[in-house]
Fold each of these.
Amino acid sequence: MSEQAIVIIITAVFGALNLVDWYTTRTVLKAGGTEDNKFTAFVLRFINLDVYLAGKAALAFYVGYHIGFISMPFLVFLTTLYGFYMVRNWKQL
C-alpha cells in the first residue's frame, strides 16, 4: 500500500472522528449540557454550532491530510488521541 493511500485512510478516520464529535456535541448541548472546551464555548457565543463544527471538520480533513505527508506518526498520534476523546464524549451521551 502506498504512503498516499495510508495517509488518506488515516485522514478519513480522523475526519470521521470529527463527525462523531459533531454528533456528540450537538446531542449534549441540545440536551442542556455545556461545552467543556473553553475555546469552543467562546467561539459558540458568536457563530452557529453547525457552522463551527462543519468548519472544524473541514479543517481537520485538510490539515490531517497535509500533516500526514509531513509526519505520518504525528497524524497517527493525533487520530489516536482524538479517538480517545471521542470515546469520552460518547460515554457522556
Amino acid sequence: MIRLIEAVGRGLIQFVEQFGLVMFLLLATIVWSLRPPFRLRAIFRQMEFVGVNSLLVVILTGIFTGGVLAFQAYHGFRQFSAESLVGSTVALAMTRELGPVLTSLMVTGRAGSAMAAELGSMRVTEQIDALYAMAANPIKYLVVPRVIAGVLVLPVLTIISDFVGIIGGYMVGVGLLKINSGIYVAKMIQLVELDDIFNGLIKSVCFGLILSLVGCYKGFYTTGGAQGVGQSTTHSVVISSVCILISDYFLTAAMF
C-alpha cells in the first residue's frame, strides 16, 4: 500500500514539474517573441518546413477522408431517402472536426517529431549550452520561430484540408454515387455557415500551438544521449496527439 502511494505521489510530482516547465516555456516564448530583433528569416524557414513540406500528406489525408465520409454518409442517408444531405455532412465534418484534427495529427507526426529530434540532438551535443555561454537565449533563437510557424501554418493547412476533403466528397458523391450535383451543392451551401469554418480555424491555431510547444519542450529538455533523443521524439508525438484530442473535446463543447 505504501509503495502504491509513493508511486502515485512520484507520478503526481513529475506531472506538476513537467506542467510547470511547459508553462514556463510558453511564457518565455511569448515574451521573447515580442522582443526585437524579429528573426523573420528563421520564422519563414520553419513555416516552409512545417507547412510546405506537409502539403502532400495533408492533401492526401483530406481528399480520401472526404471520399470515405461521402461513402459512409450515403449508405446511411439512403435508408431515409436523404442522399441530398451527403454534401453538407461531409462539409460540416471536415470544417468543424476532421479538417483541423487530422491535419494537426499529420503535422504532429511529421513536423512535431522533427522539432523534438532537432532540439534534442542540440541539447545532448551541448549546442544549446553553447548558446547560453555566448549570451544568446536559445528560446529566442530555437523555440520562438518554431512555435510561431506552427501557429501560423496550421490554419492554412486546415483550409487546404477542408477544401480537398469537400472536393473528395463531391467526386465520390456526384461522380461515383450519382447524386444530383445541383442538390448536393445547394444543400451544402444552405447548411454550412461561416462560423463552422471559423471555429475550425480557431481549433487549428490551438492545435498548432500544442504540437509545436510540446515538440520544442520535449526536445529542449532532453537528457540521456541518443536514446533520450529517441524517447523525446516518441513522447512528443504521443503527448501532442493526446492533448490535441482532449483539447478538441473542450473546444467543441465551448463552441457548439
